[in-house]
Amino acid sequence: MGRDACLSNCEPRGILYWFATMQVPKSRIPFCPACGSPTKLAVPDGDEKMRAVCSSCGRVHYENPKMVVGCLVEHDNKVLLCRRKIEPAYGLWTLPAGYLEVGESAAEGASRETLEEACADVEIVSPFAQLDIPLIGQSYIIFRARMKTPSFSPGSESLECELFALDDIPFDSLAFSSIIVTLRMYIEDVKAGNIKFHYCTINKRIGAGPSDLRSFDIDNHLAV
């Protein structure tokens, strides 16, 4: 049976459908950073995972998770959100956050991202959450923060910025699963009168959009 025929005749979750839709894995490091030759996926000696191995010089290149840092800015019992001006999730709301740069601490990176996206100069109060998303290779650290002066405006990556009361947060228009989870945990803590530090794993479904409310669940939730 050909692949197209199998796709049309197999039940969506049947084993034949799984084999028919299975893709040959590809490395996200297609060329060796050392010599420029193509890489191939292989399990190096003494390892147990597929790695990008240079077909010429034999160097092994590892794909490590990316660190995302951001701030949950508190002001007058409200939180600061930015509406995204860039893809993915254009036009949706998010906490100011972005990738950590080499040479800065997580707290420094979170403050920088808040200044870039919301033009808000903030003071870090405490770490609030670490969220791991294994499927997309990201780990988030979100800090509670306060504005040094009550001033903010949209940066180059934001359409607008706004302070939201907790009951007014637009959960149907939030950009990412990490932001949804962070804000849910924060609201629960505020209502309980005890703000904690949270850790959890976000399990996203393959192929789900970044803001699909039904595309993920959380696991290993710890709150201290």
From TrEMBL:
InterPro entries: NUDIX_hydrolase-like_dom_sf, NUDIX_hydrolase_dom, Nudix_N. PROSITE patterns: NUDIX (PS51462). Pfam families: NUDIX (PF00293), Zn_ribbon_Nudix (PF14803). Residues 64-187 form the Nudix hydrolase domain. It comes from the Eukaryota. This is Nudix hydrolase domain-containing protein.
